[in-house]
Design brief:
By secondary structure, the protein is mostly helical. The chain is built from 7 helices and no strands. It has helices at about 1-15, 20-35, 40-45, 60-75, 80-95, 100-110, 115-125. Helix 1 packs antiparallel against helix 2, helix 1 (about 1-15) packs parallel to helix 4 and helix 4 (about 60-75) runs antiparallel to helix 5.
Length: about 130
């Protein structure tokens, strides 16, 4: 359930600018497949806009994965739109992050793969912005 809600958020974000590019689509499908969702199940999510639902029982790591994946997806097409930033900031707030976390993430998240050391460092940094 937690991953399904995350995939729905990613789909919503990818649709904000009006055009879902193949790299965005592949990114979302790969996250689903990495967690055992068949590609066909993830594909069905692309056909509608979803309610923004943030599960209450998320761990700190799960919250980080939610916001990290959103920011990385936003940066994939190398164009960042104000509506995308607002969407991510809204989700970050619902996850319990202070607004400043978006500034840090926008600066440090890369659109390509990041090393484990980079991820660990970013995870520690974002944890300092958690309110609850």
């Amino acid at each position: 359930m937690i991953l399904l809600e995350q995939l729905k958020l990613l789909v919503n974000l990818s649709r904000i600018d009006g055009a879902m590019i193949s790299r965005e689509r592949s990114y979302i499908i790969n996250i689903g497949k990495a967690h055992g969702f068949p590609e066909s199940s993830v594909e069905t999510l692309f056909y509608t806009t979803h309610d923004v639902i943030i599960p209450k029982e998320l761990t700190t790591d799960q919250k980080f994965n939610y916001i990290f994946n959103l920011v990385q997806l936003m940066k994939i097409d190398e164009r960042i739109y104000e509506e995308e930033i607002k969407f991510c900031a809204n989700v970050a707030a619902k996850l319990g992050y202070q607004p400043q976390v978006m500034f840090e993430l926008m600066l440090k998240v890369k659109s390509e793969d990041m090393s484990q050391d980079e991820m660990d460092s970013l995870k520690e940094l974002t944890a300092t912005y958690l309110i609850n």
